[in-house]
User: Fold this.
Amino acid sequence: MPWSSQNGGGGWKSGGGGGPWGQRPGGGAPSPDLEELLRKGQDRLKQAMPGGGGRMGGPVLILAALVGLGLIGFFGFTVRVNPDEQGVVLRFGEYHEVLTPGLNFRWPYPIDTVYLPKVTRVNRTEIGMRGTVDVRGTSTAVRDVAEESLMLTGDENIVDVDFVVFWRIKDAADFLFNIQNPARTVKQVAESAMREVVGESDIQPILTQARQKTEAAVQTLMQQTVDSYQTGIVITQVQLQKVDPPAQVIDAFRDVQAARADQERVQNEADAYANRVIPEARGEAQRILQAAQAYKEQTVAEANGQAARFLSVYDEYKKAPDVTRKRMFLETMERVFGDMDKIIIDDNQGGQGVVPYLPLNELMRRRTAGEQQ
Assistant:
């Protein structure tokens, strides 16, 4: 072998030159021969191997042993964390650190223990029902769980609520060490939050237009609760699957709903009639008020005119009382006898003579009536 050179020229085995394994400067015992140590190790391996081994078996076995030790050391001191995982390291049973995805160093067991929870996987928890999930994520063969789904609303009605909660791990350390049964914890928190939200709402909005509002309220309340417990869980979604009255009273509930619908219809009809009649009545009242106001103004104006006329006549009367008195008498007689048949009697004839006159007004009236016929 090359390590056993016989040239005596200051090789490792020669004693001259003060080489690394030769005679030490200043005297003393020589260092152990490396080749001798390797030869003894090969002999021991040959004795341990069945059949003794050949001339080249020793180095191969040593290389294989070294490779095996290297592999054992590599896999014993490293751990692979997948992209969807977080590596939580316990050192002597106490939380130490969180490993990022990739290859990470760690001490072998029992010094370090590594847990690898799936932090990106979305978990599904069903409340009020049990069923299997197909490849599309929908439940099949659903079985109702009444003790979880029956809830009391704010208007003292009972409603049957089935819903699903989707959640994932946000903090692996909190998830592993702060709660003992994560799935059960999420289920209990979800049921409690849904009962609180339903208990503060009426049944009609829950059954109709308030489903999304209910889901958002339950998700918010659940997140606040799990955060207060430091569970390391994030609630991603809450989905209402079924919101119905209990099966035992669904017929009566439908009758009540139909009665309420009739009540709303009649109320709407009454409101429409009121909306039509009230404006008409108000308009009529305004018309009457305006007519009364016009009549008032007309009467006052006429009275003022009559008073002004009377005052003007009175002023003229004061200037010439006899003339004014005679004029007033004549105008009054004209108004009184204007539409009457008249017979004129002359007193100079002793009360027996009738003065003839031509009734032109009557002739004109008779002519006009004849033309109209």
Summary: DSSP finds ten helices and 13 strands in the chain.
